[in-house]
Design a protein that fits this description.
Length: 236
């Protein structure tokens, strides 16, 4: 459903991604791993229509739509939800306002995500529905970031480092939440540094090397068994 073909991205004149090839199938969870500075967040921003980076070549297609020519709000309207690195919740709004402000009509082929459904999914947020987002813990803000993205009723969910800065017990909660999202109707592109989280959630893993090149691709089981790849490209 998502196809990236020969993507080239720059920040100013500096090339970051040169010729990225990647795809995500219907209902599939693909995790992209790699060391810092390889271009993972640049890829996410390019898919979401955010600038920078500048897209200098290649194509990003969601089904038949080429996303490269679209503004970020147009990409979102096509069914791309984003959980950004650093969460970026609206701190001056309450939990419920964060969810309501981003709500989008459901697709005809999908169960609708509503505020109450998000609260059923994250009971912790229900308990804090009237609190300002700036007063939430890091884990609660991550739950809110995920819930906010789901309120757009996406076909493709982009998740950029959802475990960053979270305690192990909170990562466990996020992992179970994400596992329950897997299934028909929602594809997930997960960018992660946490190898254990990626291995437990992904159907397929792609390892990104310098300049956005995919240097390894395969099943979580195959990566877990490949000590050379983990050592040379992930520092494990």
């Amino acid at each position: 459903m998502l196809s990236i073909d020969g993507l080239q991205c720059t920040y100013g004149t500096a090339p970051i991604i040169q010729g990225l090839q990647l795809d995500v199938g219907e209902g599939e969870v693909v995790s992209v791993l790699g060391r810092n500075g390889m271009g993972k967040t640049t890829m996410v921003r390019a898919i979401a229509g955010m600038r920078p980076p500048e897209v200098r070549g290649g194509a990003i297609r969601l089904y038949e739509d080429d996303l490269v020519t679209l503004e970020s709000y147009e990409v979102a309207r096509l069914g791309v939800g984003l959980v950004p690195q650093g969460r970026h919740v609206f701190g001056s709004l309450t939990v419920i306002e964060n969810l309501e402000v981003i709500a989008r009509a459901p697709r005809h082929d999908a169960d609708s995500w509503t505020v109450e459904r998000v609260f059923d999914f994250f009971p912790r947020l229900d308990e804090r529905r009237e609190q300002f987002a700036s007063n939430l813990s890091g884990g609660e803000q991550q739950m809110l970031a995920i819930g906010r993205a789901l309120m757009t009723n996406p076909r493709l969910l982009l998740m950029d480092e959802p475990s960053e800065g979270l305690a192990p017990i909170v990562i466990g909660t996020i992992k179970e939440t994400m596992r329950s999202l897997k299934g028909p109707g929602l594809s997930i592109l997960l960018v992660e540094q946490n190898l254990g989280l990626a291995l437990s959630l992904a159907d397929r893993i792609a390892v990104m090397g310098p300049h956005g090149q995919i240097v390894w691709s395969g099943s979580p089981e195959a990566l877990d068994a490949d000590e050379a790849v983990k050592r040379s490209h992930l520092g494990v």
